[in-house]
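Notes from the 1:1 (GR / supervisor)

We went over the backlog. Supervisor wanted to see one worked example end to end before approving the batch request, so GR pasted a single chain during the call. The sequence is below; no edits were made to it. Supervisor asked that the structure be written out right there so they could see what the output format looks like.
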Amino acid sequence: LYSDTQTRPSPAMKEAMMRAEVGDEQHGDDPTVHALVDRMAALMGKEAAIYLPSGTMCNVIAILTHCGKGDEVVAHETSHILHSEGGTHAALTGVQIMPLRGAKGLFSADDVRAAIRPKTRYSPPQRLLEVEQTANIGGGVVWPLAQLNAVADVAHEQGWSTHMDGARLMNACVAAGIAPKEMVAGYDSVWLDFTKGLGAPLGAVLCGSEEFIGQAWRWKQRLGGSMRQAGICAAACLYALDHNVDRLAEDHANAKALARGLRQIQGVTVEEPDTNLVFFDIRDTGVDVATLQAKLAMQGISVSGLGGRVRACTHLDVTAPMIEEAVGAGVADIEEDQVGVRLLDRHALDLPQPAGQRLGIGVVLGQPVHVVV
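Structure output shown during the call:
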């Protein structure tokens, strides 16, 4: 449950990789990579696309292409480019980031207007508005389409470019029932990660105009992102587009089941998940996040921590029974110091019932036991 980056290629995906027709990607003659980028450009409604090793490289190259050194990028204060890219923009791109506040990783058109600087010799040139769909630290929240378009409109009125970090874009599209092309229409560049819920082992695709992608290729070469027989991995991405998009709804359902179970634990506050990320606060339980993580790890369950919040992430390798087990383990660990007794069962989680019995997880004095009820 630590992250959807832990997904493993399925046997069928591996078979597709083995059958892939390949060439020299850097030289431009890998047919499977061509098929992937052409399909992605069409899916996103953009002129062109480029296959890159990682989503972080997509963000870095997008900013290098849209901006110059000393320019400013306007983004949410919890954004990936600000917190999770190793200081890349100080080290490599030379831009500064103006952080916007807003609940759940989102901001409004008025927030963007308030961030507009006067054009003076003292102010950094503002070049780019960046959004993250879904908003990770915000709780996996889906940006409403109208709000996405509204903030993009303000940026374009100012002559800024717009960029979407679409690491979990397909989760947003499935949850909202909106086609990718419509979701990203207001954005000059957008990328999709294939190594999270889509289950591929490597790669992300950055999309934009022909001119933008042409310049992105130059940065790809400069940063060492060009590859050789990359069609092997591109085939996994194509397989993911064919087989692993619609099933994201299962991950969302499992996330909601996990949230329902966690709400039954005294002292735990759970944020309702939009997609596959479940954030919960355990500060009122008297157990700190590090302790919970350590105890869960002993049971083979991994979660991530952000201050007093815990993040659990559902994905294609997490099944409904595993969700039930994780909730039970969480009850045991949190209630160890409370000396409580608690029962979580399949009815509470809306999970399938095994034939002839209902299996619950009881916790007596902090010890998880299986109980037939």
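Supervisor's comment: The first strand starts at residue 48 and ends at 52.
Batch request approved.
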